[in-house]
Design a protein that fits this description.
disordered C terminus; two-stranded antiparallel sheet; six-stranded mixed β-sheet; elongated; alpha/beta; single chain
Length: about 425
């Protein structure tokens, strides 16, 4: 074993500690160590006493704290129990309310299900009833179909019998239609020939009227209305002594066999278009209440021999009116102009146009009514003629063939006698 060494703090030399050198040091160290141990024993005893005192104090403090904790815990437990009781009561109340609501909902659902069940039962009853009705209707339909099949067999037999008769009747009708068409063509050719002749005569009369007016009133302007334009036949502009235009006369020439009131309305329309003050119709035929000339619904109507005297009189009236109007020119106020318009021919023509429109509508309505009544009467007469022709043809065939011709229902003597008297007409009445 190596000997312990120590180092000098000054010279740093190592010095070996031999037994002779280390004994005093070891002894001194041993005494010092023993002394320290004794002191530690004393300190330890003192500490043990202090610890016991502390343990006793801690025990007392612990008991005090335990009492306080127990008291605090008891109060907290009471408080917690109260809170829990309140919360439990509130939760129980909410739970009871929720359960009540759920019970009400369940009752409502149960009620709805009961209603649906009732409705379903009612629907089922209706379906059963409808099914029963459909079955009854099906059986009734089958019976009806069977009856109609039997009836159709009888109708088919009658139809086959009538086809031959219809074919014969159609041939007779075709011949009658051919004859009627030929007669219609002959009448149309006659009408066209007469119309061409009347149109030529009318043009000659128009030229004659234009020539007479130009010869009688050389200062006036007399112009023919071009062919194909609306506005009468001759336009006569009357000139005054100073060469001013005093008015316009519209002439219409007619050369027919019959008088027509429709000429008046047409000439009034032409008068308004031409802005003429006077309109005159010269015709070979005049209304019954007119001898030579007269005023009819605002239009002058005259025979050809009275045309010039009427023209002289009306021309003088236009010149006098224009002269009076010229004399008062510049002195009329707006009210006077309005009064002049209201009392003048244009306002009368405007109002008259409205009245004529309504009158024309009324005439058209009456004509339509008469045409419909006429058409009804014509068809009734045609049906009666067809029935008479059919009966006559059936009688002729029966007279030729005898009883071999099968009887036709509705054409026998018994059926004709049973018919109401008001529906039968004699041949003379039918014609």
């Amino acid at each position: 074993m190596a000997e312990p060494t120590i180092t000098c703090p000054k010279c740093k030399n190592e010095i070996k500690l031999t037994e002779s050198l280390a004994a005093p040091l070891i002894e001194s160290t041993r005494r010092d160590y023993e002394k320290r141990l004794a002191q530690k024993d004393v300190d330890l005893a003192s500490r043990e006493t202090s610890l016991k005192e502390r343990e006793q104090a801690l025990e007392k403090s612990k008991e005090t704290v335990d009492a306080q904790v127990a008291e605090k815990l008891q109060s907290e437990r009471a408080k917690i129990a109260a809170d829990e009781a309140r919360k439990a009561k509130l939760a129980l109340s909410n739970d009871i309310e929720q359960k009540t609501k759920e019970v009400a909902d369940l009752q409502e659902i149960l009620k709805q299900k009961d209603e649906k069940l009732t409705e379903a039962q009612k629907t089922q009853a209706d379906l059963l009833k409808k099914q029963r009705e459909l079955d009854d209707a099906k059986r009734e339909l089958e019976l009806t179909i069977e009856k109609r099949v039997q009836e159709n067999l009888a109708v088919t037999r009658q139809q086959a019998r009538k086809e031959a008769e219809d074919e014969l009747r159609l041939k007779v009708s075709e011949k009658e239609q051919t004859i009627a068409s030929m007669q219609k063509q002959i009448e149309e050719l006659k009408r066209r020939a007469e119309q061409g002749s009347q149109q030529l005569q009318g043009e000659v009369q128009e030229l004659e009227l234009e020539t007479l007016l130009k010869a009688k009133f050389p200062r006036d302007t007399v112009e023919p209305v071009p062919k194909g334009e609306h506005g009468g036949d001759v336009l006569h502009r009357v000139l005054g002594p100073l060469g001013q235009i005093c008015g316009t006369i519209l002439w219409e020439s007619k050369r027919t066999k019959n008088w027509s009131d429709g000429w008046l309305a047409k000439l009034r329309d032409d008068q308004r278009t031409a802005k003429a003050e006077i309109a005159i119709i010269v015709s070979q035929v005049v209304p019954k209440d007119i001898e030579t000339f007269g005023l009819v619904d605002g239009v002058w109507v005259a025979l050809p021999q009275a045309a010039l005297p009427v023209a002289v009189a009306l021309r003088y009236t236009l010149i006098e009116t224009a002269t009076a109007r010229l004399a008062s020119e510049g002195q009329q106020t707006k009210m006077e102009l309005v009064y002049q318009y209201l009392t003048g021919p244009r306002f009368r023509q405007r109002v008259q146009a409205i009245v004529e429109a309504f009158g024309s509508m009324k005439e058209d309505l009456d004509k339509e009514k008469k045409a419909i009544l006429k058409q009804w009467a014509k068809r009734e007469e045609q049906i009666e003629r067809v029935m008479q022709s059919t009966v006559g043809m059936y009688g002729d065939l029966q007279g030729i063939a005898g009883k071999t011709i099968q009887e036709i229902e509705g054409l026998e003597l018994k059926a004709i006698e049973d018919a109401p008297a008001k529906t039968r007409k004699t041949p003379s009445e039918g014609r």
